[in-house]
Amino acid sequence: MRFVRTIHTYYGFGIFVITFFIAFPILLVPIIFPRAFRLVGVVNRWWARTVFTLVFLPFRVEYREKLKRKQSYIFCPNHFSYIDIPTMGLNHHNTIFVGKNDYENIPLFGYMYRKLHITVDRSKLKSRATTVKRSLAAIDDGKSLVIFPEGGIITEKDPVLARFKDGAFRMAIEKQIPIVPVTIPHNWIILPPDEFLLRWHPMKVIFHEPIQTKGMTLDQVATLKAQVFEIIHTELQRHLSHENRPHLVG
User: Fold this and answer.
1) Dist. CA 199–CA 149, nearest whole Å
2) What is the tens place of the pLDDT at every residue in 113-129?
3) Which CATH number goes with the domain that contains 67?
4) Three-state DSSP class for residue 180
5) Any bridge partners for residue 235, and if so which?
Protein backbone atom coordinates (compact mmCIF):
# COMPACT_ATOMS: atom_id res chain seq x y z
CA MET A 1 0.00 0.00 0.00
CA ARG A 2 2.85 2.37 0.82
CA PHE A 3 4.40 1.61 -2.57
CA VAL A 4 1.14 2.59 -4.31
CA ARG A 5 0.96 5.80 -2.26
CA THR A 6 4.57 6.62 -3.21
CA ILE A 7 3.82 6.16 -6.92
CA HIS A 8 0.66 8.25 -6.56
CA THR A 9 2.63 11.01 -4.82
CA TYR A 10 5.33 11.16 -7.50
CA TYR A 11 2.66 11.14 -10.19
CA GLY A 12 0.80 13.94 -8.41
CA PHE A 13 3.96 16.01 -8.10
CA GLY A 14 4.65 15.53 -11.80
CA ILE A 15 1.14 16.70 -12.69
CA PHE A 16 1.59 19.73 -10.44
CA VAL A 17 4.86 20.71 -12.13
CA ILE A 18 3.60 20.17 -15.69
CA THR A 19 0.42 22.17 -15.13
CA PHE A 20 2.43 24.94 -13.44
CA PHE A 21 4.56 25.35 -16.56
CA ILE A 22 1.38 25.56 -18.62
CA ALA A 23 -0.12 28.16 -16.28
CA PHE A 24 3.03 30.25 -15.79
CA PRO A 25 2.86 32.25 -19.05
CA ILE A 26 -0.70 33.31 -18.17
CA LEU A 27 0.38 34.29 -14.65
CA LEU A 28 2.95 36.63 -16.18
CA VAL A 29 0.05 38.87 -17.24
CA PRO A 30 -0.93 39.98 -13.69
CA ILE A 31 2.77 40.16 -12.78
CA ILE A 32 3.40 42.63 -15.61
CA PHE A 33 -0.01 44.31 -15.36
CA PRO A 34 -1.01 44.37 -11.64
CA ARG A 35 -4.51 45.67 -12.44
CA ALA A 36 -5.24 42.25 -13.95
CA PHE A 37 -4.92 40.69 -10.47
CA ARG A 38 -8.29 38.90 -10.80
CA LEU A 39 -6.66 36.64 -13.35
CA VAL A 40 -4.69 35.08 -10.48
CA GLY A 41 -7.89 33.61 -9.03
CA VAL A 42 -9.07 32.42 -12.43
CA VAL A 43 -5.78 30.59 -13.11
CA ASN A 44 -5.62 29.18 -9.58
CA ARG A 45 -9.13 27.78 -10.01
CA TRP A 46 -8.26 26.13 -13.36
CA TRP A 47 -4.96 24.87 -11.96
CA ALA A 48 -6.47 23.35 -8.80
CA ARG A 49 -9.35 21.69 -10.63
CA THR A 50 -7.02 20.28 -13.28
CA VAL A 51 -4.49 18.92 -10.79
CA PHE A 52 -7.05 17.27 -8.50
CA THR A 53 -8.90 15.77 -11.45
CA LEU A 54 -5.77 14.34 -13.05
CA VAL A 55 -4.51 13.04 -9.69
CA PHE A 56 -7.85 11.25 -9.16
CA LEU A 57 -8.84 13.18 -6.04
CA PRO A 58 -12.60 13.93 -6.20
CA PHE A 59 -13.44 17.29 -4.66
CA ARG A 60 -16.53 19.08 -3.45
CA VAL A 61 -16.81 22.83 -2.84
CA GLU A 62 -19.66 23.87 -0.54
CA TYR A 63 -20.84 27.43 0.09
CA ARG A 64 -23.16 28.01 3.04
CA GLU A 65 -24.04 31.43 1.61
CA LYS A 66 -23.52 32.98 -1.81
CA LEU A 67 -20.68 35.48 -1.80
CA LYS A 68 -20.92 38.92 -3.40
CA ARG A 69 -18.74 39.03 -6.49
CA LYS A 70 -17.40 42.55 -5.97
CA GLN A 71 -17.04 42.31 -2.19
CA SER A 72 -13.59 41.90 -0.62
CA TYR A 73 -13.32 39.14 1.97
CA ILE A 74 -10.70 37.61 4.21
CA PHE A 75 -10.89 33.81 4.01
CA CYS A 76 -9.66 31.94 7.11
CA PRO A 77 -9.18 28.17 6.62
CA ASN A 78 -7.79 25.58 9.01
CA HIS A 79 -4.36 24.31 8.00
CA PHE A 80 -3.52 20.63 8.55
CA SER A 81 -1.83 19.70 5.25
CA TYR A 82 0.40 21.13 2.53
CA ILE A 83 -2.36 20.40 0.04
CA ASP A 84 -4.54 23.07 1.73
CA ILE A 85 -3.00 25.83 -0.40
CA PRO A 86 -4.00 24.37 -3.80
CA THR A 87 -7.34 23.40 -2.24
CA MET A 88 -8.06 27.08 -1.58
CA GLY A 89 -7.52 27.61 -5.29
CA LEU A 90 -10.91 25.93 -5.76
CA ASN A 91 -12.55 29.06 -4.31
CA HIS A 92 -15.02 30.62 -6.75
CA HIS A 93 -14.01 34.03 -5.40
CA ASN A 94 -10.71 35.41 -6.75
CA THR A 95 -8.10 35.69 -3.99
CA ILE A 96 -4.42 36.10 -3.22
CA PHE A 97 -2.56 34.42 -0.38
CA VAL A 98 -0.87 35.94 2.65
CA GLY A 99 1.59 33.46 4.09
CA LYS A 100 5.10 32.44 5.04
CA ASN A 101 7.95 32.96 2.58
CA ASP A 102 8.92 29.27 2.56
CA TYR A 103 8.22 28.93 -1.18
CA GLU A 104 10.23 31.93 -2.37
CA ASN A 105 13.40 29.93 -3.03
CA ILE A 106 11.73 27.41 -5.35
CA PRO A 107 12.92 28.20 -8.91
CA LEU A 108 10.27 29.95 -11.03
CA PHE A 109 7.43 28.98 -8.67
CA GLY A 110 8.99 31.13 -5.95
CA TYR A 111 9.21 34.07 -8.33
CA MET A 112 5.53 33.73 -9.21
CA TYR A 113 4.48 33.31 -5.58
CA ARG A 114 6.49 36.33 -4.42
CA LYS A 115 5.16 38.57 -7.18
CA LEU A 116 1.47 37.65 -7.01
CA HIS A 117 0.97 36.94 -3.32
CA ILE A 118 2.04 38.51 -0.02
CA THR A 119 4.80 36.73 1.87
CA VAL A 120 6.14 37.18 5.38
CA ASP A 121 9.23 36.15 7.32
CA ARG A 122 7.70 35.68 10.76
CA SER A 123 11.13 35.76 12.41
CA LYS A 124 11.58 39.43 11.43
CA LEU A 125 9.49 42.19 12.95
CA LYS A 126 10.03 44.46 9.94
CA SER A 127 8.78 41.77 7.55
CA ARG A 128 5.64 41.24 9.65
CA ALA A 129 4.93 44.98 9.68
CA THR A 130 5.48 45.25 5.91
CA THR A 131 3.14 42.31 5.32
CA VAL A 132 0.36 44.01 7.28
CA LYS A 133 0.79 47.21 5.26
CA ARG A 134 0.78 45.32 1.96
CA SER A 135 -2.29 43.33 3.00
CA LEU A 136 -4.24 46.45 3.95
CA ALA A 137 -3.22 48.07 0.67
CA ALA A 138 -4.36 44.96 -1.24
CA ILE A 139 -7.79 45.22 0.40
CA ASP A 140 -7.95 48.88 -0.62
CA ASP A 141 -7.25 47.73 -4.19
CA GLY A 142 -10.29 45.47 -4.04
CA LYS A 143 -8.48 42.19 -3.45
CA SER A 144 -9.65 39.33 -1.25
CA LEU A 145 -7.13 37.54 0.94
CA VAL A 146 -6.57 33.98 2.13
CA ILE A 147 -4.90 33.90 5.54
CA PHE A 148 -4.33 30.71 7.52
CA PRO A 149 -5.02 31.99 11.04
CA GLU A 150 -3.02 29.21 12.73
CA GLY A 151 0.11 30.69 11.13
CA GLY A 152 1.19 27.37 9.61
CA ILE A 153 0.79 23.62 10.05
CA ILE A 154 1.03 23.09 13.80
CA THR A 155 -0.48 19.61 14.14
CA GLU A 156 1.67 16.69 12.97
CA LYS A 157 -0.78 13.77 13.06
CA ASP A 158 -4.26 14.30 14.46
CA PRO A 159 -6.23 17.32 13.19
CA VAL A 160 -5.91 19.57 16.24
CA LEU A 161 -6.91 23.17 15.58
CA ALA A 162 -4.16 25.45 16.90
CA ARG A 163 -4.64 28.82 18.55
CA PHE A 164 -5.37 31.56 16.02
CA LYS A 165 -3.15 34.58 15.52
CA ASP A 166 -4.69 38.08 15.52
CA GLY A 167 -3.58 39.40 12.12
CA ALA A 168 -6.50 38.39 9.89
CA PHE A 169 -9.07 39.56 12.41
CA ARG A 170 -7.42 42.91 13.07
CA MET A 171 -7.27 43.59 9.32
CA ALA A 172 -10.90 42.59 8.78
CA ILE A 173 -12.05 44.95 11.54
CA GLU A 174 -9.76 47.77 10.47
CA LYS A 175 -11.07 47.59 6.89
CA GLN A 176 -14.62 46.66 7.98
CA ILE A 177 -14.82 43.73 5.57
CA PRO A 178 -16.35 40.28 6.19
CA ILE A 179 -14.38 37.25 7.32
CA VAL A 180 -15.28 33.86 5.85
CA PRO A 181 -14.41 30.84 8.02
CA VAL A 182 -13.33 27.88 5.88
CA THR A 183 -13.26 24.25 6.97
CA ILE A 184 -11.06 21.76 5.11
CA PRO A 185 -11.89 18.53 6.95
CA HIS A 186 -10.09 15.75 5.06
CA ASN A 187 -6.79 17.05 3.71
CA TRP A 188 -4.85 15.76 6.72
CA ILE A 189 -5.91 12.29 5.58
CA ILE A 190 -5.10 12.89 1.90
CA LEU A 191 -1.61 14.33 2.51
CA PRO A 192 -0.53 13.88 6.15
CA PRO A 193 2.07 16.50 7.14
CA ASP A 194 4.27 13.90 8.86
CA GLU A 195 4.38 11.51 5.86
CA PHE A 196 4.03 13.60 2.69
CA LEU A 197 2.53 10.63 0.84
CA LEU A 198 -0.82 10.91 -0.91
CA ARG A 199 -3.70 8.77 0.26
CA TRP A 200 -6.91 8.53 -1.77
CA HIS A 201 -9.86 10.19 -0.06
CA PRO A 202 -12.61 12.54 -1.29
CA MET A 203 -11.70 16.18 -0.73
CA LYS A 204 -14.09 18.75 0.64
CA VAL A 205 -13.87 22.47 1.37
CA ILE A 206 -16.65 24.35 3.17
CA PHE A 207 -17.05 28.11 2.95
CA HIS A 208 -19.17 29.19 5.89
CA GLU A 209 -21.44 32.22 6.09
CA PRO A 210 -19.43 35.48 6.08
CA ILE A 211 -19.12 37.20 9.45
CA GLN A 212 -19.75 40.93 9.12
CA THR A 213 -17.34 43.28 10.89
CA LYS A 214 -19.05 46.61 10.20
CA GLY A 215 -19.32 48.52 13.45
CA MET A 216 -16.71 46.35 15.19
CA THR A 217 -13.72 47.95 16.88
CA LEU A 218 -10.24 46.58 17.48
CA ASP A 219 -11.07 45.72 21.08
CA GLN A 220 -13.37 43.02 19.63
CA VAL A 221 -10.57 41.13 17.87
CA ALA A 222 -10.63 38.36 20.49
CA THR A 223 -14.41 37.97 20.13
CA LEU A 224 -14.22 37.72 16.34
CA LYS A 225 -11.32 35.30 16.52
CA ALA A 226 -13.18 33.06 18.98
CA GLN A 227 -16.28 33.09 16.75
CA VAL A 228 -14.33 31.94 13.69
CA PHE A 229 -12.47 29.33 15.72
CA GLU A 230 -15.70 27.88 17.07
CA ILE A 231 -17.31 27.64 13.62
CA ILE A 232 -14.37 25.74 12.13
CA HIS A 233 -13.85 23.62 15.25
CA THR A 234 -17.51 22.56 15.35
CA GLU A 235 -17.49 21.60 11.66
CA LEU A 236 -14.29 19.59 12.09
CA GLN A 237 -15.79 17.77 15.06
CA ARG A 238 -18.84 16.87 13.00
CA HIS A 239 -16.79 15.37 10.18
CA LEU A 240 -14.46 13.60 12.57
CA SER A 241 -17.34 11.97 14.43
CA HIS A 242 -18.79 10.74 11.12
CA GLU A 243 -15.48 8.98 10.47
CA ASN A 244 -15.58 7.36 13.93
CA ARG A 245 -12.32 8.98 14.93
CA PRO A 246 -11.42 10.53 18.31
CA HIS A 247 -12.80 14.03 18.88
CA LEU A 248 -10.62 17.05 18.42
CA VAL A 249 -9.06 18.95 21.26
CA GLY A 250 -9.26 22.74 20.92
Assistant:
1) 26
2) 999 999 988 778 888 89
3) 3.40.1130.10
4) strand
5) none
